[in-house]
Amino acid sequence: MLDNAPGGTPIAGPAVGAFLAVRRRLVTAGAGGRVGREVWAAAAELAEIAGWALFDAARFRAAQRFNREALRLARLAGDASMELLVLQNTGLVAGWSGRGRDELAIAEAALARRRLTPRVASMFRARQAQGLAVAGAEWEVAKAFRRAHDLLGESEPAHTPAWAWWVTHAEIDRQHGRVLHDAGRWAEAIPVLRGALGDGPENEVGYRGVVTVRLLDCYLRVGAWAEAEQTAGELLVAAPEMTSAVIRRLLRDAAAHGGRRPGVPGDLRDALRALRATASPPA
Q: Which residues contact 50 (CB under 8 A, 6 or more apart)?
């Protein structure tokens, strides 16, 4: 995925520009029939990419505007697969914007549909779990994450969307780790987040950098200084190549908070200071 590629170029601007150019042509030329549906589907995919890129740039309101446009176009095209992906992205942005109840509503509406493939259903179960966490339903959260993992063990039909490849056990662990981290259950989050960073293609989760940053924060919160120092060293190497504004913001906050904790060894405090400077936007 783009966010896993070191030194990747931010794509929000080009993605938005490409979609707007296509939309202008659609408005001018119009489109109907089968060809029209194919054009609408292509435009929906461009809008989806723009929405994702805007999320990655931490422009959440703009991301949701493009998500709404992508959803409208996908429905015009009759593209149910793209509609599901856009609904997932819309729930994602809602959750990161602090609107967990909206995230939950989106996930449960999707799960109410018939004929979701196991991998797609797993994706929405994980999204449901994160919304339930905001509602304080801890037992239901654990149940939803278990169900998300179980669904990945079911056989996949041939019509599973190609875009769902990234929905893996490691990705579910990443999302579960986020819930535990944000709930202040740092010791519990550590093994879950470590699981999302294991070796092998299964663990190449989409937002891998987020996992490492959250692990650093967990280590700092529980006073695991040796582990924190090792993770901070890894991030010092990776941080200059990070283009995701979402990840850089999390890193900046974790480094700032960790640097203020009592008892932090001097070398680790220096590393956190360097991470905070690297992750901060240019003056």
A: 12, 15, 16, 18, 19, 66, 70
Question: CB neighbours (10 Å) of residue 155?
Answer: 7
Tokens 């029939």 correspond to: 33
- Where do the domains of the chain lie? 1-83, 197-283
Q: Establish how many alpha carbons lie within 13 A of residue 263's alpha carbon, considering only the half-sphere containing its beta carbon.
A: 8
The predicted-structure confidence for 75-120, as pLDDT tens digits, reads as follows 988 999 999 999 999 999 999 999 999 999 999 999 999 889 999 9
For the entire predicted model, the pTM comes to 0.89
